[in-house]
Specification:
Elements: H1 3-13, E1 18-24, E2 27-33, H2 42-59, E3 64-70, H3 72-81
């Protein structure tokens, strides 16, 4: 499965401000930014990302998945604190 396919599945079902998907072999990393995450617990945030990908996870097309979710404000802080010196 390609990163672009993962992005398309997520964007089709979620209203995301920013989305980054990277792949290392069978391991995928998703960074999603959306206002909706401000209203959700950490578990609900993970479930929101897993839901559109559930068929691919069940079939084995997606093997390992790391998810990081942020509100736009949290993302601004994250980028600020993780800027290279």
């Amino acid at each position: 499965m390609e990163c672009k396919q993962v992005e398309e599945l997520l964007r089709a079902q979620l209203e995301l401000d920013e989305l980054y998907v990277t792949q290392d072999g069978t391991h995928y990393k998703v960074i999603a930014v959306a206002d909706m995450f401000g209203e959700l617990s950490p578990v609900k945030r993970q479930q929101a990302i897993y839901a559109p990908l559930s068929e691919q996870i069940a079939s084995g097309a997606l093997h390992a998945l790391t998810i990081k979710t942020f509100t736009p404000e949290q993302w601004k802080r994250e980028k600020l604190f993780n800027m290279p010196a």
